[in-house]
Amino acid sequence: MDEKRPLILVVDDVPMNRALLSDVLSDKYNIIEAENGNEALVLLRERTSEISLVLLDMVMPERDGIEVLTIMNKNGWINEIPVIMISGETAHALIEGAYMLGATDFIGRPFDEMVLKNRVNNTIRLYRKQKNLSDLVLNQIYEKTRNNSMMVTMLSHIVEFRNGESGMHVLHINTITEMLLRELLRRTKKYNINKNDIGIICTASSMHDIGKITIPDEILNKPGKLTPEEFNIMKGHTINCAQMLNAVPVGKDEPLMKYAYEICRWHHERFDGRGYPDGLKGDEIPIAAQIVSIADVYDALTSERCYKKAYTHEKALEMIHNNECGVFNPILIECLDAIADKLVVALQTFDWSKQADKDFFYIADAMMNDPSHPIYNQAFRQFIDERKKCHFFEFTLNGILFEYTFTPSVMKLSSKASQKLGLPRTIIDDYKPGDNAQCATENLEKIRKIIQRKSTPKDKPISIKQTFNIDGKSIPCNVKVLQIWAKGKNDAPTLTSVYGHIDVIQ
Amino acid sequence: MNLSEFYNSLGESLEEVLERLRMESRVTKYLGLFLSDPSFSELKTAFAGSDAKTAFRAAHTLKGVAANLGLNKLSASSSELTEDLRPGAFTANSEALLSKVEADYNAAVNGIKQLEQ
Predict the structure, then answer these.
(1) Residue A429, C-beta contacts closer than 8 angstroms, at least 6 positions apart
(2) When you count CB atoms within 10 A of the terminal residue's CB, does the N or C end of chain B come out lower?
(3) A208: which DSSP letter?
């Protein structure tokens, strides 16, 4: 089929009617047919983003035209796919009902070939224009977010570099803050924040230490212990930052400004009131600042600094539990414990280039869940749904599955695969199983070999016979592998990801 | 009998049909297909089985198909029957309206058969 020709779904229970319509339209369009409402809905579900127009009969067995329209409304399809009713129907109320349900047009029988062609053509053109416009807006939002988030990251890095820190600190705080926030939202509605605030708080968290630009170099980068006077100056970075932000002439009522202020000023407060600069106690400290302060402490403990070595993840958790770095809100410590395992992986596999995309997903997520402007982009919705479906099947089917993406290079195993092959669920490239894990080492090598197999783009999965070491025995398996290739405009296709299913031969 | 004579014999106009469907060959093709369209026999079966809902749908279909082919008398009588059956039950008029549809249908079908020879 020629891909540039728009696809029209013709829904009519009478074969003659379908034949006549496709006869008239097939010189310019590709046609698929459904002989009742149910069939139409199945096709609409499967090919939502391909179908450019529906020609819909009204009176049919197995769900009539009105029922099809009702369901198209429910699923939001009506916002992206125009529907022209085509029927001998003359009952005024029914036709009006179809318009109310979002039908674009009504063509009565007998229809005129010329009129039909023109209405079809105009409707498709109009919707295409609208779709292009909404894609344009979406792209611009994406670009804007990307630039904004890059700006904030750049500026906060400049501050970090002056502190002699790696620059990863800001990004780590970002990640930890996000994970803690999500966990906190799962546990309680007590704090007046919602999903839409997550992105803003994370952005604001990047700025937590910008007040340090007011601290002289010799204090900021002093290798030894600070004197009490020096420490007092150092503490001033909180108040100084708050004053700087107050002096910014714009954005006074913006949530980003509010959170940035709270975080900068109070991320060194402690739950028992023994922090600085204001000695706030308990929930007098805004929750955003509480979260960033625990994230800051965790990352400081697990990173190397000019005055200390890096502690392990376990040691850092232990020190936080023992209040060795001050007292934190017990619910946040609970959250930290809950995300502890995921956190280690997230910080290890951190990918800079994904940061902006993440911000974009916050916006998309917020828009999709906001009834006042839901996202109408079907392809986008479908993508999100597919991701969820994928997770669900993986979980239910409990197969031995692996997947590998090249940027970032991360391998993921299903829980069954992890258990059978003796490997962790998430594997980054420099991972090595312990010395006494002979079978894990062997299995990992075999999977890596499969992933790096030379190939050219093809759409079909490849079948490979391979033995794996399962429970200490060499077990023959069939491995089905699907490679996903990206085709650039000019460059040669590149392999972007590999999906595999290991089937034990009985 | 040619296409124009066929429409004349039914008191209809080929010109009107051609204005909408453009090609004589197309009109001939769909008249041929009309012979195998099951709507009318479904209508009869539905009457025999006292199934007013199916009868309504069949009459509705017949009305649309006939209209497209310029069989306006058949379309008009089917339309009357459609409206009679719309509430979902047979009325005192239904049988008489069906006879009218049947007469128009037979006239059209006989004509198409002669056309085909």
Answers:
(1) A409
(2) C
(3) T
Q: How near does any CA of chain B get to the CA of A1, in Å? A: 25
Task: Tell which CATH architecture fits domain A7-135.
Answer: 3-Layer(aba) Sandwich (3.40)
B-chain residue closest to A16, CA distance:
B33
| pLDDT tens per residue, range A189-214 | 999 888 888 888 988 998 898 888 88
A10 within 8 A of A31, measured Cβ to Cβ:
yes
Is residue A111 less than 8 Å (CB to CB) from chain B?
A: yes
CB distance from B113 to chain A under 8 Å? no
The reported pTM is 0.58
Q: Say yes or no for a CB contact (<8 Å) between B65 and A91.
A: no
Chain A interface test: which of B20, B37, B40, B84 (most A C-beta within 10 Å): B20
What ipTM was estimated for this complex? Answer: 0.82
**What are the strands, taking DSSP E only, across A146-304?**
none
Which CATH number is B107's domain given? 1.20.120.160
Partners of B62 on chain A (C-beta within 8 Å) are none
Please name the fold of domain A398-504.
Answer: Beta-Lactamase (3.30.450)
